[in-house]
Amino acid sequence: MAYSSVAIVGRPNVGKSTLFNALAGSRIAIEADSPGATRDRVLYPVEFAGRTFDLVDTGGIGIVDSQSLERQVERQIALAIEAADVVVFLVDSRDGPIPQDEAVAAVLRKAGKKVLLAASKVDTQRLEDNLPSFHSLGFGDALPVSAKQNRGLHDLREAIAVALPPGTPEEGEGPETDGLPRIALVGRRNVGKSTLVNQICGSERVIVSEAPGTTRDSIDITIRDGGGGGFILIDTAGLRKRGQMDDSLEFFGHMRTERAIRRADAVILMLDATDEIGRVDKRIAAFILANHKPCLIALNKWDLALEKNPGITPEAFSKYVGDRLPGLHFCRLAALSARDGLNARGMLDSVLELVRQGAARVGTAALNAALGEAQKKRGAHPKGGKPGRVYYGTQIGVSPPTFLLFVNNPSQFDGNYMRYLANQLRQSLGYPEVPLRMVLRASTDKETGE
Fold first, then answer.
1. Average pLDDT score over residue span 402-423
2. pLDDT score for 5
3. What would be the CATH architecture of the domain defined by 4-163?
4. Where in the chain is the domain with CATH 3.30.300.20?
5. Which parts of 164-301 fold into alpha helices (H)?
6. Which CATH code fits 178-358?
7. C-beta of residue 405 within 8 angstroms of C-beta of residue 418
């Protein structure tokens, strides 16, 4: 299903990301006082007045980038304009029309798109009285908006709804109700995530550069297959040690990566197969495990690893990963080359299988039989006190599979035994590669656990 696209464009630092977040109703894009915070296209599905469309935030036209990525940023803006059905041309009410705005207007006139002119930061009546000066840009009256004061947003939404072409999906059919699984792609800096995203999309969807730290936002990308299914791929900022972060933009990118993991149905943790697993990889792995997310470990640059060490095998690397990331020892591995697309399709099939595993339910009888067998093999015998015993269990949730266990005394079950129990249940119940969440509750009835 195709959705209409509405792109917000303008020169740097006019408030595009702030307006984007206000229209989306959520802090999706990074907001910063310094120009150039946004580089890639940030997309979010929005529904208003029965019209569903993709809202797109873009970088500033005419940006001077700190890592000399001006050409790549401008390319992303051009792609957003090309795909847009409506363009919201944002100017700053406090500055009046300036030459940079004229340059943006020239770009939009050449594109031939439906353009809505909007003036940001209209916080006072005096600023609104100055808006007629923007007629010189050639796009009629400027709609006054103040994202921070929630002023003019309803009028802008209505103008967008009127300007959208016919055939937009109706309310209730939008991407928020599709039920598509969300796959977060995470890893440390310069490991190849954006290259893989473009390989999966078959297009230049995000900026790829040798410079580390190119991606700053978490970007949701809907990938559809021919049968009406698909998934949402979340590209995230590359992480590094907290003490090495340069500025607030990098800090916010880090926070958004953690948010992407929390809202994902499964995670792809990308490692560089030519490099050692380091502290940042371990920290990401620990966060994935703490949030009980199914995880596929993608070994990128596998072709280069083979050139460096011809005798290496995925099995040998699996043991190495298990030693360095013991909390994820049960996770599936995929060796690939993001640059060449080697095994990218197989990796996606594998991670979608993990989503299905995480969404599965088991019968109560099967669960309690597995619990009984696990306790026969090894009981909970902490130092001092009465041995722990599980009387009864029931599944209370999926994604992650969550089990409520009625026990004699929750304090008698230490971390080692809970990990043992999880490993046993994974193998017995058909969850070999996904984490399980178990909740302990003291019980007074040994027969039913109620």
1. 92
2. 84
3. 3-Layer(aba) Sandwich (3.40)
4. 364-442
5. 193-201, 248-263, 279-290
6. 3.40.50.300
7. no
* Distances in whole angstroms, Cα of residue 198 to Cα of each of 24, 141, 189, 208, 409: 25, 38, 17, 9, 52
Q: Is residue 16 a contact partner of residue 37, using CB atoms and an 8 Å limit?
A: no
Give helix 279-290 / helix 248-263 axis angle, nearest 10°.
40
Best CA proximity match to 33, nearest among 137, 144, 148, 126? 148
Q: Closest Cα partner for 347 from 314, 369, 324?
A: 314
Q: What is the Cα gyration radius of the chain?
A: 26
Pinpoint the residues of the chain covered by CATH 3.40.50.300: 4-163, 178-358
Measured CA to CA, the distance from residue 212 to residue 190 in angstroms comes to 5
102 vs 104: CA distance, rounded Å: 5
Handedness of CA 181, 182, 188, 194 (dihedral sign): positive
23 sits in which H/E element = helix 16-24
pLDDT band at 65 (very low <50, low <70, confident <90, very high): very low
Does the domain at 364-442 match CATH 3.40.50.980? Answer given as no
pLDDT of 18 > 80? The answer is: yes
Question: What pTM did the predictor assign?
Answer: 0.62
pLDDT reported for residue 328: 92
What mean pLDDT comes out for the span 284-313? 91
The number of CA neighbours under 13 Å toward the Cβ of 283 is: 13
Are the C-beta atoms of 443 and 416 separated by less than 8 Å?
no
CA distances from 176 to 46, 80, 232, 314 (A): 9, 21, 11, 38
Report the mean per-residue pLDDT for the chain: 81
Least confident of 172-186, 308-322, 367-381: 172-186
- Here the tokens at position 384 are 């001092």
How far apart CA 65 and CA 238 sit, in angstroms, is 18
pLDDT of residue 64 exceeding 50, the answer is no
